[in-house]
Amino acid sequence: MNTFEMIVEKTSTGYSAYCESEGAYTAANTFAELQTNMVEALNLALEETGRTVTLADIKITYDLESFFDAYKVINAAALAKRLGMTQSLLSQYVSGAKKAGPKQTQRILEGIRQVGKELAEMELVF
Q1: Residues 59-71: pLDDT tens digits?
Q2: Among 32, 34, 41, 104, which is most exposed with the fewest C-beta within 10 angstroms?
Q3: Nearest 5°: phi and psi at 45?
Q4: What distance lies between CA 87 and its chain's CA centroid?
Q5: Are 66 and 9 in contact (CB under 8 A)?
């Protein structure tokens, strides 16, 4: 089964998402609602093909502003320090005041993935 890429963007009223390859577009006030809407939009777009998708079939792609808004648990200031980047610069990327280039975006993504990997491998003693 194919994976369908939905590009998520933060809007003034919530979120929007689109899959250009299938002509599927949707919006929502919350990220949880957007996930449901993405599945519905793709299934409507694919209705004539007889194919159906679930959330597992969707690859969600974010811009930096949308990512940090959806995952508020990630502290941008701490991540900036870890990356050796100024907090001010990362804050500008996160707020949308400045757009990160491909190299900076990749650097930030690698930092986020490294944190995720470390958390996934962690054990806690109780």
Answers
A1: 999 888 888 888 8
A2: 32
A3: -65, -30
A4: 21
A5: yes
- Is the distance from CB of 3 to CB of 58 less than 8 angstroms? yes
The dihedrals phi and psi of 13, each to the nearest 5 degrees, come to -110, 0
Same domain membership, residue 57 and residue 82 = no
Is 126 within a domain? no
Mark whether 89 and 108 lie in a shared domain: yes
pTM score of the predicted model = 0.73
Per-residue DSSP letter, 33: H
Range of the structural domain that residue 91 is part of = 71-121
* One domain for residues 77 and 53: no
Q: List pLDDT tens digits, range 9-29.
A: 988 898 999 999 999 999 999
Q: Which residues lie closer than 8 Å to 107 by C-beta, 6 or more apart?
A: 83, 85
Burial of residue 23 (CB within 10 Å: 0-12, 13-18, 19+) is exposed
Asked whether residue 85 is assigned to any structural domain, the reply reads yes
Q: Do 90 and 82 contact (CB within 8 A), yes or no? A: no
Whether 108 is covered by a domain: the verdict is: yes
